[in-house]
Amino acid sequence: MDSIHFRDIPETGIDRALSLAYLAFHENPEEEKRKHHHDLLRGCSRIGAYEGDELVGFLAAFPFTVSVPGGELPCPCVTFVSVAPTHRRRGVLSGMIAELFARAAADGAPIASLWASEDAIYGRFGFGSATFGHTVEIDSRRPLALRITPDDRPLRLVDPADAPALLAAYYDATRTERAGRIDRTEAWWREEWLVEKDEDDDELSPPRVVVIGEPRGPVAGYAIYRTKTRDDDPGLVRLDELEADTPAAAAALWRYLASIDLTGQIRAWGRPVDDPLLLFAADRDQVRVTGEFPALWVRLVDVRAALESRSWAAPVDVVLDVRDDRVPANAGRHRLTASPDGCTYAATEDPADLTVDVRDLAACYLGGTRTAALVGAGLATEHTPGTVTALDAALRTPRLPHTVDAF
Ligand SMILES: CC(=O)SCCNC(=O)CCNC(=O)[C@H](O)C(C)(C)COP(=O)(O)OP(=O)(O)OC[C@H]1O[C@@H](n2cnc3c(N)ncnc32)[C@H](O)[C@@H]1OP(=O)(O)O
Q1: DSSP character for 203?
Q2: pLDDT tens digits for 175-212?
Q3: Cys-Cys link to 283, which of 18, 145, 273, 407 (CB 3.0-4.6 A)?
Q4: What is the pTM of this model?
Q5: What's the CATH class of domain 4-109?
Q6: 41 Cα distance to chain centroid
Q7: Are 311 and 328 in contact (CB under 8 A)?
Q8: Is residue 25 lining ligand 1, measured as CB closer than 6 Å?
Q9: How far apart (Å, rounded) are the C-alpha atoms in residues 129 and 72?
Q10: Which stretch is the leader sequence (predicted)?
């Protein structure tokens, strides 16, 4: 490892970094895709691991903000992590992550995040699964049975070229209602959400966008979906995103999707775990959760700043003994005093009420995992009875965190 040095990859080095990424991910994309990746990387910070002049590892981070309970935080969103097959398991990734943490601290970003290619990689670096997604399938060969009356405001299809402005207005106004969501630029809307050809399935139609709301009034909800039909199968509606301001508006959008002629199935990926659909669907044989997966992994790079930056639902006053072998400044006993009025987190000599690993604290940070569940799983130790009950009441958020932008 002494022969490896870490430094920024200049813009002129992006093509080389991409070649390394394509090698590591076993990809050989077409020119258009390469150009898209190149453009994305120009907007990222880029850490390279070099042996002499040879690039042997690479990590990029989007400079997104991510919503947290009560607000949002700057957050390097890590992507394209690649190590040359000749240099794997020699600590290259570990070195790049250490660089990432040092830069995040210098830039005043209390948290970092990523989507993991493999579940086993990132826990050791203190990342915890902070949001989860559901895959939901709906049998739409019959009308969607609902327990509530759908909103009767009009639905209209929107040209995808006009959609970013319309949808962004709604998304930006509502995205902090759930923790775990990123800010989206116009380019992100166009190139990640509304791109003409689906990158995984070329049988799918271009994106279709349906919105609900009074004509010329503000958008009250929307769905982005693609379709495909096959002779031997009921046609498919592949839902990419559905957002609505009320359950009735969501019900209207779901019912619309379930009623599209020549289709008989909806497959929705990345739905919130507490999607209201799962409660207002009248027939859960018709609406089934077919998968659950970890979505956003979060790292509390600066535990104090991260905890003091989120809102707290109830008063709590406890001493946490945090284990963190990658960022020693986070480790040790700290008194967390929080309430809806604010939070302080300071080193203390007082005995611990709860011992917890930083990765598990990160899993609870956005409100998606309960500390009681950590104790129940043997991952944290409650020294003072009542600690996790109080902590969970304080960490609680009205809605579960949710991340659907896989970067
Ligand atoms: C956010 C994203 O971009 S996710 C994409 C991740 N990239 C990929 O999957 C592409 C293909 N894989 C790779 O490029 C590399 O194998 C990487 C990036 C996953 C790992 O890089 P390496 O330099 O080999 O990791 P490094 O040597 O620092 O390993 C650190 C530790 O993680 C462990 N580890 C590394 N990769 C894996 C893995 N895939 N599964 C389980 N453990 C792993 C190592 O065994 C090591 O454990 P130790 O500390 O107990 O010895």
Answers
A1: T
A2: 999 999 999 999 999 999 999 999 889 999 999 999 99
A3: 145
A4: 0.96
A5: alpha beta
A6: 19
A7: no
A8: yes
A9: 18
A10: none
For residue 235 the two structure tokens come to 């046609």
d(CA 265, CA 404): 21
Residue 222 among the catalytic residues? no
ipTM (interface predicted TM): 0.97
Which pLDDT belongs to residue 266? 97
Q: Is 262 in the pocket of ligand 1 (CB under 6 A)?
A: no
Backbone angles phi, psi at 79, to 5 degrees: -155, 170
Any atom of ligand 1 within 6 Å of the Cβ of 136: no
Mean pLDDT, all residues of the chain: 97
Number of other residues whose CB lies within 10 A of the CB of residue 270: 20
Looking at domain 133-292, which CATH architecture does it have? 3-Layer(aba) Sandwich (3.40)
What's the 53 CA to ligand 1 centre distance in angstroms? 22
Separation of alpha carbons 366 and 113, rounded Å? 12
Q: Which one of the listed residues 122, 170, 222, 345 is annotated catalytic?
A: 122
Structure tokens at 32: 């258009």
Tell whether ligand 1 has an atom less than 6 A from the beta carbon of residue 326.
no
Q: Which of 393, 368, 374 is nearest to 181 (CA)?
A: 368
φ and ψ at residue 94, rounded to 5 degrees: -55, -40
Q: Which residues contact 138 (CB under 8 A, 6 or more apart)?
A: 144, 254, 257, 258, 265, 266, 268, 286, 287, 288
Give catalytic status of residue 365 as yes or no: no
Q: How far apart are CA 387 and CA 371, in angstroms?
A: 9
Summarised one tens digit per residue, pLDDT across range 379-402 is 999 999 999 999 999 999 999 999
For 359, the token pair is 């990765």
